[in-house]
Amino acid sequence: MKLITKKTDYAIKALCHMAKTDGIGLFTASKLSKELKIPKPLLRSLLQQLGKNSIISSSKGNLGGFKLNKPANKIFIIDLIKIFQGPIELSLCFVKKHLCFDINHCPLRKVINGIASDINKKLAKVTIASLNKNL
Description:
Elements: H1 6-20, H2 29-36, H3 40-52, E1 56-59, E2 65-68, H4 77-85, E3 94-95, E4 98-99, H5 107-123, H6 128-133
Antiparallel strand pairs: 1-2, 3-4
Helix pairs in contact: 1-3, 1-4, 2-3
């Protein structure tokens, strides 16, 4: 089980980089790809998803590029996880591709749901700005 996938990790890295150097203009996918060592096709796809979700905005043309659409302290990691991975769920119990028959009475599921809730609450407080402070 991975809590953070490669796509989410790369999106966080790109946004942290953009936030650190915010105000110096637009960022191109090529420049970000080189500086962050993220494959350009993958990064371009991530940037498009971030744009669709209003995290960043883009402009086209020779002087075009990407920029943060909101302050770094308003970009929450939990939202990025939801964009690229969906909601965090630790208790998807399956037996041979079918939902577990004991799902409503399972004591382990209750414990795991509590852990997932704690993770979600903590990640809901983490922002791009707070990550940049820890660098």
